Amino acid sequence: MSLFGLGSKNQKTFRPKKNAPSGNKGVQLKKHIDATLGSGNLRDAVRLPPGEDLNEWLAVNTVDFFNQVNILYGTLMEFCTPTTCPTMSAGPKFEYRWADGIQIKKPIEVSAPKYVEYLMDWIEVQLDDESIFPQKLGTPFPQNFREVVKTIFKRLFRVYAHIYHTHFQKIVSLKEEAHLNTCFKHFTLFTWEFKLIDKAELAPLIDLIESIVSVC
Amino acid sequence: MDSARSWLQKLQPRDKDRGKPASPTAARKDGAAAMAEDGEEAISSTTATKVAAAKQFIENHYKDQMRSLEERKERRRMLESKLADPDVSEEEQNNILKDFENREREIMRSRRHKMGVDDFELLTIIGRGAFGEVRLCREKATSNVYAMKKLKKSEMLRRGQVEHVRAERNLLAEVDSAYIVKLYCSFQDEEFLYLVMEYLPGGDMMTLLMRKDTLTDDESRFYVAETILAIESIHKHNYIHRDIKPDNLLLDRTGHLKLSDFGLCKPLDSSSFPNLSEFDYAVGKNINPSMDGDKLLSSSAAPRRTQQEQLLHWQKNRRMLVC
Predict the structure, then answer these.
(1) What was the pLDDT predicted at B265?
(2) Which residues of chain B have a CB within 8 Å of the CB of A64?
(3) pLDDT, position B269
(4) Which listed site, B15, B163, B297, B317, has its alpha carbon 20 to 30 Å from B136?
(5) Per CATH, the architecture of A11-17+52-215 is what?
(6) Domain boundaries, chain A
(7) Residue ranges of region Disordered (chain A) (predicted)?
(8) What are the structural domains, with CATH classification, of chain B?
(9) What is the pLDDT of residues B205-235, one digit of tens each?
Protein backbone atom coordinates (compact mmCIF):
# COMPACT_ATOMS: atom_id res chain seq x y z
CA MET A 1 0.00 0.00 0.00
CA SER A 2 2.67 2.48 0.97
CA LEU A 3 4.25 1.79 -2.40
CA PHE A 4 2.03 4.58 -3.72
CA GLY A 5 2.36 6.71 -0.61
CA LEU A 6 -1.19 6.07 0.51
CA GLY A 7 -0.24 6.03 4.18
CA SER A 8 -1.42 3.55 6.77
CA LYS A 9 -4.90 3.52 8.26
CA ASN A 10 -3.83 4.50 11.77
CA GLN A 11 -2.17 7.74 10.73
CA LYS A 12 -4.32 10.74 11.51
CA THR A 13 -3.88 13.50 8.95
CA PHE A 14 -7.48 14.68 9.44
CA ARG A 15 -8.05 16.13 12.90
CA PRO A 16 -11.57 17.18 13.90
CA LYS A 17 -11.43 19.43 16.98
CA LYS A 18 -13.90 18.57 19.71
CA ASN A 19 -13.88 21.88 21.56
CA ALA A 20 -14.14 24.15 18.53
CA PRO A 21 -17.06 26.60 18.33
CA SER A 22 -19.80 25.35 16.04
CA GLY A 23 -20.51 28.02 13.46
CA ASN A 24 -23.14 28.18 10.75
CA LYS A 25 -20.64 28.33 7.88
CA GLY A 26 -22.42 25.51 6.05
CA VAL A 27 -25.69 27.43 6.08
CA GLN A 28 -23.95 30.56 4.77
CA LEU A 29 -22.25 28.64 1.97
CA LYS A 30 -25.50 26.92 0.95
CA LYS A 31 -26.89 30.34 0.03
CA HIS A 32 -24.12 30.77 -2.53
CA ILE A 33 -23.91 27.26 -3.99
CA ASP A 34 -26.67 27.93 -6.53
CA ALA A 35 -24.44 30.27 -8.52
CA THR A 36 -23.12 27.96 -11.22
CA LEU A 37 -22.28 27.96 -14.92
CA GLY A 38 -24.75 26.58 -17.43
CA SER A 39 -22.78 23.35 -17.62
CA GLY A 40 -25.51 20.89 -18.58
CA ASN A 41 -26.73 17.99 -16.48
CA LEU A 42 -23.81 17.18 -14.18
CA ARG A 43 -25.51 14.12 -12.72
CA ASP A 44 -25.70 12.70 -16.22
CA ALA A 45 -22.10 13.73 -16.90
CA VAL A 46 -20.68 11.71 -13.99
CA ARG A 47 -22.35 8.39 -14.82
CA LEU A 48 -20.20 5.64 -16.26
CA PRO A 49 -21.03 5.57 -19.99
CA PRO A 50 -22.40 2.21 -21.19
CA GLY A 51 -19.61 -0.15 -22.19
CA GLU A 52 -16.89 2.03 -20.66
CA ASP A 53 -14.16 0.56 -18.49
CA LEU A 54 -14.58 1.88 -14.93
CA ASN A 55 -10.86 2.45 -14.40
CA GLU A 56 -10.56 4.45 -17.63
CA TRP A 57 -13.49 6.60 -16.51
CA LEU A 58 -12.00 7.13 -13.04
CA ALA A 59 -8.60 7.97 -14.56
CA VAL A 60 -9.77 10.58 -17.05
CA ASN A 61 -11.97 12.29 -14.47
CA THR A 62 -9.23 12.25 -11.84
CA VAL A 63 -6.97 14.18 -14.23
CA ASP A 64 -9.77 16.67 -14.98
CA PHE A 65 -10.55 17.29 -11.30
CA PHE A 66 -6.86 17.70 -10.50
CA ASN A 67 -6.54 20.34 -13.23
CA GLN A 68 -9.60 22.19 -11.96
CA VAL A 69 -8.45 22.30 -8.33
CA ASN A 70 -4.96 23.28 -9.45
CA ILE A 71 -6.18 26.22 -11.52
CA LEU A 72 -8.77 27.39 -8.94
CA TYR A 73 -6.32 27.32 -6.05
CA GLY A 74 -3.75 29.05 -8.27
CA THR A 75 -5.94 32.15 -8.34
CA LEU A 76 -5.76 32.39 -4.53
CA MET A 77 -2.00 32.14 -4.11
CA GLU A 78 -1.74 35.85 -3.39
CA PHE A 79 -4.18 35.50 -0.48
CA CYS A 80 -3.42 32.02 0.86
CA THR A 81 0.01 32.52 2.40
CA PRO A 82 1.88 31.16 5.44
CA THR A 83 0.89 34.40 7.20
CA THR A 84 -2.84 34.27 6.45
CA CYS A 85 -3.14 30.46 6.66
CA PRO A 86 -0.47 29.11 9.04
CA THR A 87 -2.24 25.74 9.23
CA MET A 88 -4.22 23.77 6.67
CA SER A 89 -7.73 23.95 8.02
CA ALA A 90 -11.38 23.83 7.01
CA GLY A 91 -12.90 26.20 9.53
CA PRO A 92 -12.21 26.12 13.28
CA LYS A 93 -13.34 22.50 13.65
CA PHE A 94 -11.11 20.74 11.13
CA GLU A 95 -7.38 20.70 10.61
CA TYR A 96 -5.20 18.70 8.23
CA ARG A 97 -1.63 17.48 8.61
CA TRP A 98 0.59 16.24 5.83
CA ALA A 99 2.06 12.75 5.42
CA ASP A 100 2.72 10.92 2.17
CA GLY A 101 3.85 7.64 3.72
CA ILE A 102 7.18 7.75 1.89
CA GLN A 103 9.19 10.92 2.47
CA ILE A 104 7.06 12.17 5.36
CA LYS A 105 5.81 9.20 7.35
CA LYS A 106 4.69 10.99 10.50
CA PRO A 107 1.98 13.63 9.88
CA ILE A 108 3.37 17.16 10.16
CA GLU A 109 1.63 20.49 10.61
CA VAL A 110 2.38 22.86 7.73
CA SER A 111 0.88 26.07 6.39
CA ALA A 112 -2.00 25.80 3.93
CA PRO A 113 0.05 26.82 0.85
CA LYS A 114 2.78 24.33 1.78
CA TYR A 115 0.18 21.61 2.34
CA VAL A 116 -1.42 22.28 -1.05
CA GLU A 117 2.00 22.29 -2.70
CA TYR A 118 2.85 18.90 -1.15
CA LEU A 119 -0.57 17.57 -2.05
CA MET A 120 -0.58 18.70 -5.69
CA ASP A 121 3.01 17.55 -6.24
CA TRP A 122 2.13 14.15 -4.77
CA ILE A 123 -0.92 13.82 -7.02
CA GLU A 124 1.06 14.84 -10.06
CA VAL A 125 3.65 12.14 -9.36
CA GLN A 126 0.82 9.57 -9.31
CA LEU A 127 -0.71 10.90 -12.54
CA ASP A 128 2.65 10.82 -14.32
CA ASP A 129 3.45 7.28 -13.17
CA GLU A 130 2.83 4.93 -16.10
CA SER A 131 2.38 1.99 -13.71
CA ILE A 132 -0.51 3.74 -11.93
CA PHE A 133 -2.13 5.86 -14.65
CA PRO A 134 -1.08 4.03 -17.83
CA GLN A 135 -1.24 6.03 -21.06
CA LYS A 136 0.10 3.44 -23.47
CA LEU A 137 -2.65 1.35 -25.03
CA GLY A 138 -2.77 -2.17 -23.67
CA THR A 139 -1.06 -1.34 -20.36
CA PRO A 140 -3.41 -2.41 -17.55
CA PHE A 141 -4.28 -0.43 -14.43
CA PRO A 142 -2.76 -1.70 -11.15
CA GLN A 143 -4.74 -3.88 -8.75
CA ASN A 144 -5.06 -1.12 -6.16
CA PHE A 145 -5.94 1.61 -8.67
CA ARG A 146 -9.23 2.43 -6.97
CA GLU A 147 -7.42 2.95 -3.65
CA VAL A 148 -4.99 5.38 -5.27
CA VAL A 149 -7.92 7.27 -6.82
CA LYS A 150 -9.72 7.40 -3.46
CA THR A 151 -6.64 8.91 -1.80
CA ILE A 152 -6.34 11.51 -4.58
CA PHE A 153 -10.01 12.47 -4.23
CA LYS A 154 -9.76 12.65 -0.44
CA ARG A 155 -6.85 15.05 -0.76
CA LEU A 156 -8.44 17.17 -3.50
CA PHE A 157 -11.51 17.51 -1.28
CA ARG A 158 -9.33 19.05 1.43
CA VAL A 159 -8.33 21.86 -0.93
CA TYR A 160 -12.01 22.56 -1.68
CA ALA A 161 -12.79 22.49 2.06
CA HIS A 162 -10.04 25.02 2.74
CA ILE A 163 -11.14 27.29 -0.12
CA TYR A 164 -14.79 27.29 0.95
CA HIS A 165 -14.05 27.86 4.63
CA THR A 166 -11.20 30.34 4.38
CA HIS A 167 -11.27 32.05 1.01
CA PHE A 168 -14.85 32.03 -0.22
CA GLN A 169 -15.29 35.79 0.22
CA LYS A 170 -12.24 36.34 -1.93
CA ILE A 171 -13.67 33.95 -4.54
CA VAL A 172 -16.85 36.06 -4.56
CA SER A 173 -14.91 39.31 -4.92
CA LEU A 174 -12.96 37.78 -7.83
CA LYS A 175 -16.34 36.82 -9.37
CA GLU A 176 -15.26 33.18 -9.45
CA GLU A 177 -18.00 31.61 -7.33
CA ALA A 178 -19.95 30.19 -10.28
CA HIS A 179 -16.80 28.50 -11.56
CA LEU A 180 -15.82 27.15 -8.13
CA ASN A 181 -19.37 25.93 -7.41
CA THR A 182 -19.68 24.19 -10.78
CA CYS A 183 -16.38 22.38 -10.30
CA PHE A 184 -17.24 21.43 -6.72
CA LYS A 185 -20.75 20.21 -7.65
CA HIS A 186 -19.28 18.07 -10.40
CA PHE A 187 -16.58 16.77 -8.04
CA THR A 188 -19.17 15.98 -5.33
CA LEU A 189 -21.53 14.17 -7.69
CA PHE A 190 -18.68 12.12 -9.12
CA THR A 191 -17.40 11.27 -5.64
CA TRP A 192 -20.90 10.28 -4.55
CA GLU A 193 -21.58 8.20 -7.65
CA PHE A 194 -18.45 6.07 -7.18
CA LYS A 195 -18.20 6.24 -3.35
CA LEU A 196 -14.69 7.66 -3.44
CA ILE A 197 -14.57 9.55 -0.12
CA ASP A 198 -15.59 8.24 3.30
CA LYS A 199 -18.42 10.16 4.92
CA ALA A 200 -16.31 11.22 7.93
CA GLU A 201 -13.88 13.00 5.58
CA LEU A 202 -16.73 15.03 4.07
CA ALA A 203 -17.72 16.52 7.44
CA PRO A 204 -16.26 20.03 6.82
CA LEU A 205 -18.66 20.61 3.90
CA ILE A 206 -21.39 18.10 4.68
CA ASP A 207 -24.25 20.66 4.58
CA LEU A 208 -23.12 21.79 1.16
CA ILE A 209 -22.68 18.24 -0.09
CA GLU A 210 -26.09 17.11 1.09
CA SER A 211 -27.74 20.07 -0.61
CA ILE A 212 -25.92 19.22 -3.87
CA VAL A 213 -26.70 15.52 -3.75
CA SER A 214 -30.36 15.98 -2.83
CA VAL A 215 -31.14 18.83 -5.25
CA CYS A 216 -29.34 17.68 -8.39
CA MET B 1 10.31 18.29 -5.71
CA ASP B 2 10.05 20.96 -8.34
CA SER B 3 7.29 19.59 -10.50
CA ALA B 4 6.48 20.72 -14.01
CA ARG B 5 3.09 21.87 -12.71
CA SER B 6 4.53 24.44 -10.39
CA TRP B 7 7.54 25.71 -12.31
CA LEU B 8 5.89 28.92 -13.48
CA GLN B 9 3.96 29.34 -10.23
CA LYS B 10 7.02 29.06 -8.02
CA LEU B 11 8.93 31.69 -9.93
CA GLN B 12 6.50 34.48 -9.21
CA PRO B 13 8.00 37.57 -7.61
CA ARG B 14 7.26 37.13 -3.91
CA ASP B 15 6.77 40.46 -2.20
CA LYS B 16 7.67 40.53 1.48
CA ASP B 17 4.14 41.77 2.15
CA ARG B 18 2.42 39.13 0.04
CA GLY B 19 0.27 37.89 2.88
CA LYS B 20 -0.92 41.29 4.03
CA PRO B 21 -3.73 43.29 2.48
CA ALA B 22 -2.07 45.54 -0.05
CA SER B 23 -2.49 49.24 0.29
CA PRO B 24 -4.33 50.64 -2.73
CA THR B 25 -1.73 53.34 -3.10
CA ALA B 26 1.30 51.09 -2.73
CA ALA B 27 3.42 50.71 -5.82
CA ARG B 28 3.61 47.04 -6.78
CA LYS B 29 6.33 45.18 -8.60
CA ASP B 30 3.90 42.97 -10.45
CA GLY B 31 1.91 45.64 -12.22
CA ALA B 32 -0.76 48.10 -11.26
CA ALA B 33 -3.11 47.12 -8.48
CA ALA B 34 -6.78 46.69 -9.24
CA MET B 35 -9.26 47.23 -6.46
CA ALA B 36 -11.40 44.24 -5.63
CA GLU B 37 -15.11 44.89 -5.68
CA ASP B 38 -15.41 44.67 -1.91
CA GLY B 39 -13.01 47.59 -1.74
CA GLU B 40 -10.95 45.91 0.98
CA GLU B 41 -7.92 44.65 -0.82
CA ALA B 42 -6.12 45.29 -4.06
CA ILE B 43 -5.41 42.37 -6.34
CA SER B 44 -2.29 42.23 -8.45
CA SER B 45 -2.41 42.08 -12.21
CA THR B 46 -0.84 38.60 -11.94
CA THR B 47 -3.87 37.41 -9.96
CA ALA B 48 -6.28 39.19 -12.31
CA THR B 49 -4.65 37.37 -15.23
CA LYS B 50 -4.80 34.03 -13.43
CA VAL B 51 -8.49 34.54 -12.62
CA ALA B 52 -9.33 35.36 -16.23
CA ALA B 53 -7.38 32.31 -17.44
CA ALA B 54 -9.02 30.06 -14.82
CA LYS B 55 -12.52 31.16 -15.77
CA GLN B 56 -11.77 30.66 -19.45
CA PHE B 57 -10.28 27.22 -18.80
CA ILE B 58 -13.25 26.04 -16.73
CA GLU B 59 -15.85 27.39 -19.16
CA ASN B 60 -14.06 25.75 -22.09
CA HIS B 61 -13.70 22.51 -20.15
CA TYR B 62 -17.44 22.22 -19.54
CA LYS B 63 -18.30 23.14 -23.12
CA ASP B 64 -15.88 20.47 -24.35
CA GLN B 65 -17.15 17.95 -21.85
CA MET B 66 -20.77 18.39 -22.83
CA ARG B 67 -19.83 18.17 -26.49
CA SER B 68 -17.80 14.98 -26.01
CA LEU B 69 -20.64 13.47 -23.97
CA GLU B 70 -23.04 14.12 -26.86
CA GLU B 71 -20.54 12.75 -29.38
CA ARG B 72 -20.17 9.63 -27.29
CA LYS B 73 -23.94 9.13 -27.09
CA GLU B 74 -24.12 9.55 -30.85
CA ARG B 75 -21.40 6.93 -31.37
CA ARG B 76 -23.33 4.60 -29.03
CA ARG B 77 -26.56 5.15 -30.98
CA MET B 78 -24.79 4.30 -34.23
CA LEU B 79 -23.34 1.17 -32.63
CA GLU B 80 -26.77 0.06 -31.41
CA SER B 81 -28.32 0.57 -34.84
CA LYS B 82 -25.50 -1.56 -36.32
CA LEU B 83 -26.07 -4.28 -33.73
CA ALA B 84 -29.83 -4.20 -34.36
CA ASP B 85 -29.29 -5.24 -37.99
CA PRO B 86 -30.71 -8.78 -38.33
CA ASP B 87 -28.08 -9.66 -40.94
CA VAL B 88 -25.25 -9.27 -38.40
CA SER B 89 -24.26 -12.58 -36.82
CA GLU B 90 -23.62 -12.96 -33.10
CA GLU B 91 -19.89 -13.32 -33.70
CA GLU B 92 -19.85 -10.15 -35.80
CA GLN B 93 -21.82 -8.36 -33.09
CA ASN B 94 -19.22 -9.34 -30.50
CA ASN B 95 -16.42 -8.13 -32.76
CA ILE B 96 -18.18 -4.81 -33.43
CA LEU B 97 -18.76 -4.34 -29.70
CA LYS B 98 -15.16 -5.20 -28.82
CA ASP B 99 -13.93 -2.85 -31.52
CA PHE B 100 -16.16 -0.06 -30.21
CA GLU B 101 -14.93 -0.52 -26.64
CA ASN B 102 -11.29 -0.48 -27.75
CA ARG B 103 -11.87 2.71 -29.72
CA GLU B 104 -13.58 4.34 -26.74
CA ARG B 105 -10.69 3.30 -24.48
CA GLU B 106 -8.29 4.86 -26.97
CA ILE B 107 -10.28 8.11 -26.91
CA MET B 108 -10.27 8.12 -23.09
CA ARG B 109 -6.52 7.55 -22.93
CA SER B 110 -5.85 10.23 -25.51
CA ARG B 111 -7.79 12.67 -23.31
CA ARG B 112 -5.27 11.99 -20.53
CA HIS B 113 -2.27 12.13 -22.82
CA LYS B 114 0.26 14.74 -21.78
CA MET B 115 1.80 16.44 -24.79
CA GLY B 116 5.57 16.33 -24.98
CA VAL B 117 8.39 16.94 -27.40
CA ASP B 118 8.31 13.24 -28.36
CA ASP B 119 4.90 13.77 -29.97
CA PHE B 120 6.54 15.92 -32.66
CA GLU B 121 9.02 15.32 -35.42
CA LEU B 122 11.44 18.25 -35.36
CA LEU B 123 12.18 19.81 -38.75
CA THR B 124 14.17 22.90 -39.76
CA ILE B 125 15.03 25.86 -37.53
CA ILE B 126 13.10 28.91 -38.75
CA GLY B 127 14.27 31.44 -36.16
CA ARG B 128 16.55 32.05 -33.19
CA GLY B 129 15.97 34.25 -30.18
CA ALA B 130 17.61 35.24 -26.91
CA PHE B 131 16.23 32.22 -25.06
CA GLY B 132 16.17 29.53 -27.70
CA GLU B 133 14.90 28.75 -31.16
CA VAL B 134 11.78 28.36 -33.26
CA ARG B 135 11.54 25.14 -35.24
CA LEU B 136 9.20 23.80 -37.80
CA CYS B 137 7.74 20.54 -36.48
CA ARG B 138 5.24 17.90 -37.50
CA GLU B 139 2.86 16.28 -35.03
CA LYS B 140 3.33 12.53 -35.37
CA ALA B 141 -0.30 11.61 -34.69
CA THR B 142 -1.88 13.99 -37.22
CA SER B 143 0.98 15.05 -39.56
CA ASN B 144 -0.01 18.68 -38.93
CA VAL B 145 2.83 21.18 -39.22
CA TYR B 146 3.45 23.73 -36.43
CA ALA B 147 6.07 26.21 -35.27
CA MET B 148 7.64 25.13 -31.97
CA LYS B 149 9.16 27.85 -29.80
CA LYS B 150 11.72 26.34 -27.43
CA LEU B 151 12.77 28.49 -24.45
CA LYS B 152 15.61 27.70 -22.06
CA LYS B 153 14.39 27.96 -18.46
CA SER B 154 17.75 28.80 -16.89
CA GLU B 155 18.31 31.62 -19.36
CA MET B 156 14.85 33.05 -18.74
CA LEU B 157 15.43 32.91 -15.00
CA ARG B 158 18.81 34.57 -15.32
CA ARG B 159 17.35 37.42 -17.34
CA GLY B 160 14.17 37.73 -15.28
CA GLN B 161 11.90 36.89 -18.20
CA VAL B 162 9.56 34.43 -16.47
CA GLU B 163 6.70 36.93 -16.19
CA HIS B 164 7.02 37.79 -19.87
CA VAL B 165 6.75 34.16 -20.91
CA ARG B 166 3.81 33.64 -18.57
CA ALA B 167 2.05 36.67 -20.06
CA GLU B 168 2.73 35.43 -23.60
CA ARG B 169 1.41 31.96 -22.88
CA ASN B 170 -1.65 33.26 -20.99
CA LEU B 171 -2.54 35.69 -23.73
CA LEU B 172 -2.17 33.12 -26.50
CA ALA B 173 -4.27 30.63 -24.54
CA GLU B 174 -6.94 33.20 -23.71
CA VAL B 175 -7.39 35.16 -26.95
CA ASP B 176 -9.19 33.38 -29.74
CA SER B 177 -8.91 35.67 -32.74
CA ALA B 178 -8.33 35.20 -36.44
CA TYR B 179 -5.72 37.97 -36.21
CA ILE B 180 -3.58 36.40 -33.48
CA VAL B 181 -1.17 33.50 -33.95
CA LYS B 182 -2.84 30.43 -32.38
CA LEU B 183 -1.22 28.49 -29.55
CA TYR B 184 -1.81 24.79 -30.12
CA CYS B 185 -0.33 23.59 -26.83
CA SER B 186 2.43 24.30 -24.31
CA PHE B 187 4.51 21.92 -22.21
CA GLN B 188 7.88 21.67 -20.52
CA ASP B 189 10.68 19.34 -19.57
CA GLU B 190 13.56 19.74 -17.11
CA GLU B 191 15.41 22.24 -19.29
CA PHE B 192 12.99 23.92 -21.68
CA LEU B 193 9.54 25.43 -22.07
CA TYR B 194 7.81 24.73 -25.38
CA LEU B 195 5.10 26.75 -27.12
CA VAL B 196 3.64 24.96 -30.12
CA MET B 197 2.01 27.53 -32.39
CA GLU B 198 0.42 27.59 -35.80
CA TYR B 199 2.94 27.88 -38.60
CA LEU B 200 2.49 30.87 -40.90
CA PRO B 201 4.32 30.25 -44.18
CA GLY B 202 3.82 33.76 -45.60
CA GLY B 203 6.78 35.26 -43.75
CA ASP B 204 6.64 38.61 -41.97
CA MET B 205 5.74 42.15 -42.95
CA MET B 206 9.37 43.28 -42.72
CA THR B 207 10.41 40.80 -45.40
CA LEU B 208 7.44 41.83 -47.53
CA LEU B 209 8.35 45.53 -47.23
CA MET B 210 11.97 44.81 -48.12
CA ARG B 211 10.90 42.75 -51.09
CA LYS B 212 8.25 45.13 -52.41
CA ASP B 213 9.87 48.37 -51.22
CA THR B 214 6.54 50.24 -51.47
CA LEU B 215 3.02 48.96 -50.94
CA THR B 216 0.09 50.28 -52.95
CA ASP B 217 -2.61 52.30 -51.17
CA ASP B 218 -4.97 49.34 -51.24
CA GLU B 219 -2.36 46.98 -49.81
CA SER B 220 -1.46 49.49 -47.11
CA ARG B 221 -5.11 49.97 -46.18
CA PHE B 222 -5.63 46.23 -46.02
CA TYR B 223 -2.62 45.52 -43.79
CA VAL B 224 -3.19 48.53 -41.54
CA ALA B 225 -6.85 47.50 -41.08
CA GLU B 226 -5.87 43.94 -40.17
CA THR B 227 -3.17 45.21 -37.80
CA ILE B 228 -5.76 47.38 -36.04
CA LEU B 229 -8.13 44.42 -35.72
CA ALA B 230 -5.29 42.33 -34.26
CA ILE B 231 -4.36 44.99 -31.72
CA GLU B 232 -8.02 45.54 -30.86
CA SER B 233 -8.51 41.84 -30.16
CA ILE B 234 -5.76 41.82 -27.51
CA HIS B 235 -6.89 45.14 -26.03
CA LYS B 236 -10.35 43.60 -25.56
CA HIS B 237 -8.68 41.03 -23.29
CA ASN B 238 -6.92 43.82 -21.34
CA TYR B 239 -3.43 43.21 -22.67
CA ILE B 240 -1.06 45.59 -24.42
CA HIS B 241 1.47 44.23 -26.91
CA ARG B 242 4.25 46.84 -26.47
CA ASP B 243 6.28 45.52 -29.40
CA ILE B 244 4.32 46.30 -32.56
CA LYS B 245 6.70 46.28 -35.52
CA PRO B 246 6.75 44.80 -39.04
CA ASP B 247 8.81 41.79 -37.86
CA ASN B 248 5.94 40.74 -35.57
CA LEU B 249 3.23 40.95 -38.21
CA LEU B 250 3.14 37.54 -39.87
CA LEU B 251 1.29 36.44 -42.99
CA ASP B 252 -0.59 33.19 -43.44
CA ARG B 253 -0.68 31.24 -46.69
CA THR B 254 -3.66 33.26 -47.97
CA GLY B 255 -1.96 36.59 -47.26
CA HIS B 256 -3.93 37.49 -44.14
CA LEU B 257 -2.07 39.13 -41.29
CA LYS B 258 -1.59 37.78 -37.76
CA LEU B 259 0.10 39.38 -34.79
CA SER B 260 2.84 37.40 -33.06
CA ASP B 261 5.56 37.58 -30.38
CA PHE B 262 3.84 38.50 -27.14
CA GLY B 263 7.01 38.34 -25.07
CA LEU B 264 6.66 41.97 -23.99
CA CYS B 265 2.88 42.01 -23.63
CA LYS B 266 1.42 43.11 -20.34
CA PRO B 267 -1.92 42.57 -18.61
CA LEU B 268 -3.54 45.93 -18.07
CA ASP B 269 -5.86 47.20 -15.36
CA SER B 270 -8.09 50.16 -16.14
CA SER B 271 -7.05 51.63 -12.79
CA SER B 272 -3.56 52.13 -14.18
CA PHE B 273 -4.60 54.45 -17.00
CA PRO B 274 -3.22 58.00 -16.66
CA ASN B 275 -5.69 60.61 -15.48
CA LEU B 276 -6.63 62.04 -18.85
CA SER B 277 -9.24 64.39 -17.41
CA GLU B 278 -6.37 66.62 -16.26
CA PHE B 279 -5.23 66.92 -19.84
CA ASP B 280 -8.76 67.64 -21.00
CA TYR B 281 -9.05 70.35 -18.37
CA ALA B 282 -5.83 72.05 -19.43
CA VAL B 283 -6.77 72.25 -23.08
CA GLY B 284 -10.27 73.43 -22.25
CA LYS B 285 -12.16 70.32 -23.46
CA ASN B 286 -14.40 69.87 -20.44
CA ILE B 287 -15.13 73.49 -19.60
CA ASN B 288 -18.81 74.21 -19.47
CA PRO B 289 -19.35 77.79 -20.75
CA SER B 290 -22.17 78.38 -18.28
CA MET B 291 -19.91 77.82 -15.27
CA ASP B 292 -18.23 80.78 -13.66
CA GLY B 293 -14.51 80.78 -12.89
CA ASP B 294 -14.79 80.19 -9.13
CA LYS B 295 -16.95 77.12 -9.54
CA LEU B 296 -14.58 75.79 -12.14
CA LEU B 297 -11.59 76.15 -9.85
CA SER B 298 -13.29 74.49 -6.91
CA SER B 299 -14.62 71.63 -8.99
CA SER B 300 -11.19 70.35 -9.96
CA ALA B 301 -8.23 69.48 -7.81
CA ALA B 302 -5.91 69.55 -10.82
CA PRO B 303 -3.30 72.30 -10.75
CA ARG B 304 -3.26 74.79 -13.61
CA ARG B 305 -0.59 73.85 -16.13
CA THR B 306 0.48 75.21 -19.47
CA GLN B 307 -0.25 73.03 -22.47
CA GLN B 308 3.46 72.25 -22.72
CA GLU B 309 3.66 71.17 -19.05
CA GLN B 310 0.52 69.13 -19.44
CA LEU B 311 1.88 67.37 -22.49
CA LEU B 312 5.09 66.48 -20.65
CA HIS B 313 3.04 65.23 -17.68
CA TRP B 314 0.90 63.07 -19.95
CA GLN B 315 3.95 61.67 -21.76
CA LYS B 316 5.54 60.77 -18.42
CA ASN B 317 2.34 58.97 -17.41
CA ARG B 318 2.31 57.12 -20.69
CA ARG B 319 5.91 56.00 -20.19
CA MET B 320 5.05 54.76 -16.69
CA LEU B 321 2.17 52.81 -18.15
CA VAL B 322 4.39 50.74 -20.42
CA CYS B 323 7.24 50.21 -17.95
Answers:
(1) 76
(2) 61, 65
(3) 56
(4) B163
(5) Up-down Bundle (1.20)
(6) 11-17+52-215
(7) 1-26
(8) 47-112 (no CATH), 117-198 (3.30.200.20), 273-322 (no CATH)
(9) 888 888 788 889 999 989 999 999 999 888 8
Shortest distance between the Cα of A117 and any Cα of chain B, in A, equals 8
pLDDT digits (tens, 9 = 90+) for B162-202: 767 767 767 777 677 888 887 878 898 878 889 898 898 99
- Residues B147 and B124: their CA atoms lie apart, in Å, by 10
Hey, is B14 helix, strand or coil?
A: coil
Q: Which of A173, A184, A185, A186 has the most B C-beta neighbours within 10 Å, making it the best mutation to test the interface with B?
A: A173
pLDDT value at position B2? 39
**Contact between chains at A124 and B51 (C-beta distance less than 8 A):** no
* pLDDT, tens digit, 9 for 90 and up, residues B72-123: 788 887 888 878 888 878 777 888 887 888 878 778 888 788 789 889 989 9
- Collect contacts of A206-214 with beta carbons under 8 A, ≥24 apart: A206/A26, A207/A26, A207/A27, A207/A29, A207/A30, A208/A26, A208/A29, A208/A30, A208/A33, A208/A164, A208/A184, A211/A30, A211/A33, A212/A33, A212/A184, A212/A185, A212/A188, A213/A188, A213/A189
Residue among A77, A170, A183 minimizing CB distance to B9? A77
State the best of B46, B62, B71, B107 to mutate against chain A, taking most chain A CBs within 10 Å: B62
| Residues of A in Cβ contact (< 8 Å) with B18 | 78, 81, 83
Mean pLDDT of B300-309: 53
B70 touching chain A per CB within 8 A: no
* B243 a catalytic residue: yes
